[in-house]
Amino acid sequence: MNTWRNASLALTAAAVLALTTACGQDNGNNLGGQSVGAANPAAAGSENGYGSDGGYGSGGAAQAAKPAGQLALSDTKKLGKVVTDSEGYTLYRFDKDSASPPKTTCEGECAKAWPVVAATDVKAAAGMDASLLGEVTRADGSKQLTLAGWPLYRFAKDTKPGDTNGQGVGGTWFAAAPDGKKAAAGADAGAEEGAEDEGAQRTELAGLSVRKDPKLGDIVVDSKGMTVYRFTKDSAWPMKTACTGECLEKWPVVAPVDKNDTEGITKKGYVTFSRPDGVKQQTIDCWPLYTFAADKKPGDTNGQGVGGSWYAVSPDGKLVGAPK
Length: 324
Prior knowledge:
Blueprint: H1 2-23, E1 34-35, E2 39-41, E3 66-70, E4 72-76, E5 80-84, E6 92-94, E7 98-99, E8 102-103, H2 109-113, E9 117-123, E10 133-137, E11 143-147, E12 150-151, E13 173-175, H3 188-192, E14 208-213, E15 217-222, E16 229-231, E17 235-236, E18 239-241, H4 247-250, E19 271-274, E20 280-284, E21 287-288, E22 310-312
Parallel strand pairs: 3-9
Antiparallel strand pairs: 1-18, 2-19, 4-5, 6-13, 7-8, 10-11, 11-12, 14-15, 16-22, 17-18, 19-20, 20-21
């Protein structure tokens, strides 16, 4: 018994030491904040961009593909018009799929959280271009409904008609607008995808990568090219955040990104931060990462210097342009 207990304590101490080594150094500008949660190493493959709960959003067995029936357009307050099935459930698209040619990448565990919409027995909604509806053949030979080439899904955590709980999950899932583009608040929804040619999908960025800004130099951006920021009132070790509640409406957290889905950034202290609201947040050098809601298009840096507390992030996780 003592031998087993001693071994267990030794393993626990080793794990703590490893995390301390990753997160407890080179953090001289630790300014504190509200203590929340804990940090968990983001092992390769542990987060796949599908959402939460092990990367997929929900457990259980994969559901058999259900036809959508008579499609409808639901006019939501936040997202504008979104496509729903005959029962009023929101239909979604996945950024890691492609529309030209149509291709689905959501299989296995992913399809448990995001049930496939069958291509049979479907009718276009009034005011919708029926020619945009199509199908794609999945790996198992079944046919999945597509809209403007994008495969369509439901979300297992939408429990009643009108729910849009899948919107923005993992930064890769979005409700489908009537033209097949991503539904999003405001008039910028269409502009976001305006650069996509009908015949070719735009070049995909890594989940986190580096962009050379003409004023700030090398800064980290997310998969949409949006600038990534740090908050000086957070701290890296112990990991704490001072951005909660209304703050998160302006500064959305960066969802976990697999280490293999990054380019040009440091892997030191590349761990997942568990927030008190249950949301997982990506860190670089153990510093929690955010985007800024007022950045409307790739290349915007409207969050730089806001309140003297928010700054873009360098590839090694440092603040860019902050006062010394």
